[in-house]
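Hi team,

Filling in the usual template for the complex we talked about on Friday. All components are listed, including any nucleic acid strands or ligand strings, so the model treats them as one assembly.

SUBMITTER: L.P.
PURPOSE: interface mapping
COMPONENTS: two
RESIDUES: 976
SEQUENCES:
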Amino acid sequence: MTEAQEPSQKRWAHLRKILERPGPFCHPEFEPSPEIMDFIVTSCKILVVGAGGLGCELLKDLALMGFKQIHVIDMDTIDLSNLNRQFLFRQKDIGQSKAKVAAEFINRRIPGCQVTPHFCKIQDYDEGFYRSFHIIVCGLDSIVARRWINGMIMSLLCYEDGVLDNSTIIPLVDGGTEGFKGNARVIVPGNSACVECTLDLYPPQVTYPLCTIANTPRLPEHCIEYVKVVMWPKENPFNAALDGDDTQHVGWIYEKSLERAAQFNITGVTYRLVQGVVKNIIPAVASTNAVIAGVCATEVFKIATSCCLPLNNYMVFNDVDGIYTYTYTAERKDNCVVCSQVPQTLLIPDATKMKLKDLIQTLCEDETYQMKNPGLTTTVGGKNKTLYISTIKSIEERTRDNLNKSLVELGLKDGSEIMVADATTPMTLVFCLKFQSSDVEMN
Amino acid sequence: MSSPAPKSPEQSEKSKKYDRQLRLWGDHGQKVLENAKICLINATALGTEILKSLALPGIGSFTIVDGEKITDEDIGTNFFIESDSIGASRAQVTTQNLLELNPDVRGDYIDETVDHVLAHSQDFFDTFSVVIATSLPEKVLMPLSRHLWEKNVPLIVCRSVGFLGYIRCQIKEHTIIEAHPDNENADLRLDNPWPALQEHLEKFDIPKLDNKERSHVPAVIILYYYLNQFKAEHGHLPKTRAEKEEIKRKIIESPHPDEHGIKHLEENFKEAIRYINTCVNPVKIPSNVQAILNDDSCINLHQTSSSFWVLCAALKEFVESENSLPLKGSLPDMAADTNSYVALQQLYQKQAQNQSEIIYRRALEIARTLGLSQESITETEAKLFCKYASQLNVIRGSCIADEYQKTGLDFTSYLEDPDSLLFHYITLRGLERFISEFNSYPGQLDDHVEPDLLKLKSIIGKLLAEWGCSQIIRDERVHEVCRYGGAELHSISAILGGCAAQEAIKLITSQYKPLNNTFIYDGITSTSASFTL
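RESULT (copied from the run log):
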C-alpha cells in the first residue's frame, strides 16, 4: 500500500472523537490522545481465529474500527451453505480457503488494511506465533478448538515467585452463536474466568443410548442414528468413512433410515433431518453473527485503546422473544485445570479395582475435564512409561492391553503423577493420584 | 454386497444455500421473506448493516432512499462504500455493493432525501413490507411515522451514536402463530382424556405388569394410572404440592423388589414423576389466548379481516363448545418400546388432526359468509394455528408521532432504578431535539463540546418538564453524548444492524416475537434494555 493510496485522516474522524476527547465513562487510566489511533492503525496486532460466520463479521468490524495488522486462521474451505451469512464469500469462491478469500476481500475493500490469512489448523502453530499478538479474538463453532486456544494463551503466562508477569497476558475475546442465541466474553488470562473455568456452560451433545436406537426406536432421529452408527460400519456401502458432505453417502443414510422407520411405523424422516443428524448441523443466521461479532469487536477496541473498561466478563444474547441480553461476571474456578496454579489431584476410590480404562472414562465424562482422547504417561521407578495413547496407531496397539489392568497392576501408587495430553489442550496436564484407603471407602 | 442407487430427493441450490436458516423459520417462512420488499431510508453504516443481514437470507427486494453524497467519514464507517467513491451518490454505491451480496435479491435506489420523497409522493412508501430508517431528523420522522401508521406499514427507526444504540418498532397490529418459545410444556390431556385415549390408557393395570412389561410402558400411561387412582380415592385430581407428592411416592413404591428386597425405579417411571408437575394442571385456556378470543377483531369480523382473525373466530367457537384448546398433537419422546410409543403417538396425532379439520372447515365457512376468498385460509396455516393455539400472540404497538407529542410520560419508576437504561432514551430524545434545532450533532466540532453540553442540558431539561418529570439526568450522561459529536462506531452499528434486521424478519415472517417497542443498547457496559413506550 503506497502512501498515495492512503486516504485522508478524515476517514477516521468518528473514531478520533472517541479517542481524542475525555469522557466521564472512560477507563480511569484513559488519556485521550492521537497516539492511540496511531497505535491501532500501525502496530496493534490482532488474531482472528475462524473465518466463518463470526470471523467474516469480525474482520469487517475490526478493519472499520481502524485495525490494520490483522491475521486470520481457518482450516476450512467455503461451502454453499455458508453463503447465507458468511458475507465475504460468493458462489465462485466455493471450495476455496475461507481465510484467504476473506482476507482478500477485506484488503480490497478497505485500503491500507493488511489481513494475513493462514489456511491451516490452529494446532499447526506454536507459542511463538500466538505470542506475537496483542489480542486474540475467537469466532469458532468448535468447543475443542476454543479450549485449545484458551489453553495456548494460558500456557504463555509467566509467573515469577507466584506473581503473574502482566506482560505475558494476551486478552482473549470469544464469541459463539447458535440460531438466535449467542454469547460473547472477555478473558484476561490469569485474572478472569477462562474457558475451562466455565466448561459446564457447554451443554453435552445430544446422544442416544445404543439400546434405544437398536431395540426401541421411537423418533426419526433414532432410526437415522442407527443407520449411521450401526449399519454404515457393517455394510460399508462405499468402502469409505461416512462423509456428511457427500450427497451419495447422505442419500444412502436417508434411504436406509426411511426403510427402518417404515419398519417401526415411525414417521418424520426427511432429507433435511438426515443431514442435520449426520452432520450435527447447528442452525445459523446472519443477524446473530452480526450482533455477537459486533460485541466482540467493540471489546477488542476497548481493550486495545483503554477507552472504556472491558466487558466483565460474559454476555448472553437471545432475540427469539424481543431482544434480550444479560451481562454477568463468570467466576474463576479456584482449582481450574488450565488457569489455576493449583496442582491437580485425581481421587482414586479403589486402585485395585479401578482399571486404566475407568480412569480414562473419568477424564472424558467428568464435567470438569470433558476430554476427547486423552493419552496417558507416567514415571515408574524413574523411567517414563506410556500407559495408553489412542492417537498413534502403533502405540495404541502396544498399550491397548493396559486398559483392562488396574492402576495397582500398572505400578501406580498413591502420589504417582500421570501426564495427560488431549486434543482439548496444547499443554500436558499433570495429575497427582490420591488413593483413598478402602476403609474410608467402606464408611 | 451391492447397495441400491440412492434415490434421495434432489435438493435445490436455494435450499442448500439457505439450509442453516430454513431450520429456523422453515420453507414457508423463507417463501414470505422472498416476497418481501424493504425500504431503507439513509444508507448510513447502520443502514447498510441492517440491509446486509436482510439481503443475505434472501429478502425479495430493497429500495434505498438517500440523497447524500459520499464523504471521507462514510468510507471509515460503511463497509458497502469503496474508498474511491467520494462524492458519488451514497444510495447508488451502497445499492450496488449490497446487491453483490446475493444474486437472489433485487434492489434499486432513489437519490433524493426522504423529505423530498415524502413531499412529492407520499404513497411511495405504502407498498413496502417494512420501512427502516436511520439518522432520521425529528421533523421527517413525525409525518413519516404518522403516514405509515395510517397505512399499516411497519416502521423500524434506528440510531447509532458513539457507544449508544436505539431501535424503535412501530407496528399497528402484528399477529403471530409461530412464536417458537424456548420452552413449552407437553399437551397430554391426562386430566380429561378424549374417549379413544381414555380407552387406550385404561387397558393398563400398572401393578400387574411384570418387569419386562413395566420397562416398556410409556410414562404417560403410568402417570394416568396413578392419577386415576388418586381421583378414585379423593374425588379430584391432585392440586397441591402435597397431593402431587403422594402420587410421586406411589410411583416410587411401585417396582417389584429384587432378590435383595431393593426396588429399582425404571427410567420411564422416573419420567412419569417428572411429568407430574408440568402436566397435571386442569386444562385451562391461557389468559393471553382468552384475551385474543375476546378481542374486538375476533368478535367483529369484516371483509378485510386477516386469516388469523378468521381462524380465531373459528377457534372461539371450538373453545366455547369444548372448553379446551385444540390438542397440540405432539408427544414428547419417552422411554418405552416402539409399539407402545407409536400407538400412543398416533392417538394424539389423530385427535389433533380431527380437531384442526373442524376448525379449518369452520374457518372456511366463516370466510365464505364474510365474502372472503376461500384461498385466504390454507389447511397448512390452520394446522399450525391449532398446533400453536396456546402460544398465539397479538401485538398492538403505538405510533412514534404520538409518543413524541405525548405530554406526561411517566418515567418515575424507571429513573428510580439505578440500573435502568431509560436515561439513554431521554438523552437520545434530547439529541434528536438538538439536531432539529441546531442542524448539527452536539459536539460535532472539537471546540463545541462544552457550549453544546449546556445547550443539550437545557433541551433535556425542557423535555423532562414537558413530560412532567421531576427527575434530572446526570451531567455525565449528557457530557458523554456531546463527546461523541455524532460519531458512528462501526461495531456498535453492526450490533444494532443485526438486531434491527432480525426484527424486520420477524415482522415479515410473522414468526418469533418482535420487540415491543423500544430497545436501548449501551456499548460501554455491554448491556441493553427494552421498554414499551
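MY TAKE: The two ends of chain B are 69 Å apart (CA to CA). Residues 287-395 of chain B form one domain.

Thanks, L.
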